[in-house]
Amino acid sequence: GLTLDREPDSLVHFKINTEIAMNVARCLEQKAVKKCVFFSTVSVYGDDETNLRITEHSQIHPTTYYGAAKFASECLLNHVAELKTFPFLCLRLCRIYGPGAPHANYGPIQFIRSILKERTVHIYGEGRETREFLFIDDLCRLVHELIDSSSSGIFNLASGENHSFVEILSILKKIVPYEFTVSSISRTRPLIDQRFDVTKLKKTLPHFRFTSLETGLQTTYDDYAKAIHSHSC
User: Fold this and answer.
1) Of the candidates 130, 166, 152, which has an alpha carbon nearest to the alpha carbon of residue 81?
2) d(CA 132, CA 106)
3) What's residue 54's pLDDT?
4) Quick check: 158 pLDDT over 90?
5) Are 40 and 92 in contact (CB under 8 A)?
6) Residue 156: which residues within 8 A CB-CB, separation 6 or more?
7) b or e along 39-65 (b: 16 or more beta carbons within 10 Å of the residue's beta carbon)?
8) 8 A C-beta contact, residue 88 and residue 153
9) Can you give the pTM of this predicted structure?
């Protein structure tokens, strides 16, 4: 599939990502499964407006082809699940970070890679807009527990805590053992803030504990620093 960090948003995103869902739907029509789990995105709610209380019932209003394709795929797979009477679990993911990320999207991964390679970070404006960031280990644990449970339907996968990009940089300044430069670049989009109300997720998994941003960033930095050191040797 195509994500927004790999190339500019376009109809190509919509075509490729919906074709994947169509292929899966064809298979599901032929043979029902125990449970269908679909990785969607919080972009189905839109990326251009501030909302500090996004729930699973918030208005759907994708503002990118990528978000539109994900929502179309949700509807398609849910329809097949209803026809074939098997559970459909739709997971809408916020921004994921951590060791092994294949792409350096704007935020923790891009910042860490830039620090290690150039000793500099470029942020849009002052970097004070807030987003939710989910550590990869937490994502894996959440998916595992939700699959093993009797849960179905839509879940926003987020911690319920939003952080600014400048806050991430302040933590990295404590982690990185040398100084790095922060350079401001002009914004290409309006400043918006987002946060999720994860009441449904917490009711379903009441004992789940999220990794702190500090711990997640430390683990991520250590992994990338080790990889670069190993490569240079």
Assistant:
1) 152
2) 13
3) 97
4) yes
5) yes
6) 42, 54, 55, 56, 92, 94, 196, 198, 200, 201
7) bbbbbbbbbeeebeebebebeeebbbb
8) yes
9) 0.93
Say whether pLDDT at 187 is over 70: yes
Pairing of strands 130-135, 162-164: antiparallel
Q: What is the 3-state secondary structure (H, E, C) of the chain?
A: CCCCCCCCCCHHHHHHHHHHHHHHHHHHHHCCCCCEEEEEEHHHHCCCCCEEEECCCCCCCCCCHHHHHHHHHHHHHHHHHHHHCCCEEEEEECEEECCCCCCCCCCHHHHHHHHHHHCEEEEECCCCCEEEEEEHHHHHHHHHHHHHCCCCEEEEECCCCEEEHHHHHHHHHHHCCCCCEEEEECCCCCCCCEEECCHHHHHHCCCCCCCCHHHHHHHHHHHHHHHHHHHHC
Query: Hey, how many other C-beta atoms are within 10 angstroms of the C-beta on 29?
Result: 11
What would the two tokens of residue 71 be? 């929502």
Beta pairing partners, 196: 54
pLDDT at 2 over 80: no
Residue 108: how many CB atoms within 10 A of its CB?
A: 27
CB 41 within 8 Å of CB 158 = no
Q: What percent of the chain has pLDDT over 90?
A: 85
Strand partners, 38: 90
What would the two tokens of residue 99 be? Answer: 């060791």
